[in-house]
């Protein structure tokens, strides 16, 4: 979907860089491989996310080979697996629980990753629909790490490649108005 098409769905109330409006979470992925240098730039951007006292609690476990993606698909719930199986890269974002704001800081790293991916011409889609206990076991994740999300990364595919019931959802979402997000002085 190009920038002009996205404007049908997204209008900012204030002037912001177009990357914020153009980044969205498609479900249709092309099976085209992501070049190593492009993928590493995406994770490099995440590496530079700010964190409390520079603890950098996030870690990414990635799957690019067919074998590794099959491992990930073993714990991704059916509703997500049916569209993310074509994604050439899957990643699990985990965070070190010793950092009291690990989830917040890891979310910032995810945001940096998503924006760099958009800049690289890639799409990303984060998922909470997976079995955390099974993922911990399959990926050998230590107990001191919390599992946050699974991320599909790749090039956008055609809407028609999705199961028919998902095709109607394959468009950018809107956002609530800014005046429903900001409260001055107290929560209203």
Structure, briefly:
The chain has 188 residues and is an alpha+beta fold.
Based on the model shown, name its key terms.
single chain, 188 residues, alpha+beta, NADH Oxidase, 4-stranded antiparallel β-sheet
Write out the CATH superfamily name.
NADH Oxidase
Give me the strand/helix succession. HHHEHHEHEHEH
- Which sheet architecture does the biggest sheet show? 4 strands, antiparallel
Major sheet: arrangement of strands: 1-2-4-3
**CATH-defined fold name:** NADH Oxidase
Keywords: Oxidoreductase
Pfam family, one: Nitroreductase
Organism: Ureibacillus chungkukjangi
Protein name: Nitroreductase
Write the layout of secondary structure elements.
Blueprint: H1 3-6, H2 18-22, H3 36-47, E1 58-63, H4 66-73, H5 78-84, E2 89-96, H6 102-119, E3 123-127, H7 132-139, E4 145-154, H8 164-167
Antiparallel strand pairs: 1-2, 2-4, 3-4
Helix pairs in contact: 3-6
Describe this structure in words.
- A 4-stranded antiparallel β-sheet has the order 1-2-4-3, sandwiched between helices.
- α3 packs antiparallel against α6 (102-119).
- It is built from 8 helices and 4 strands, in the order αααβααβαβαβα.
- With 188 residues, it is α+β, with helices and mostly antiparallel strands.
- Residues 162-188 are annotated as: Disordered.
- This is Nitroreductase.
- Belongs to the nitroreductase family.
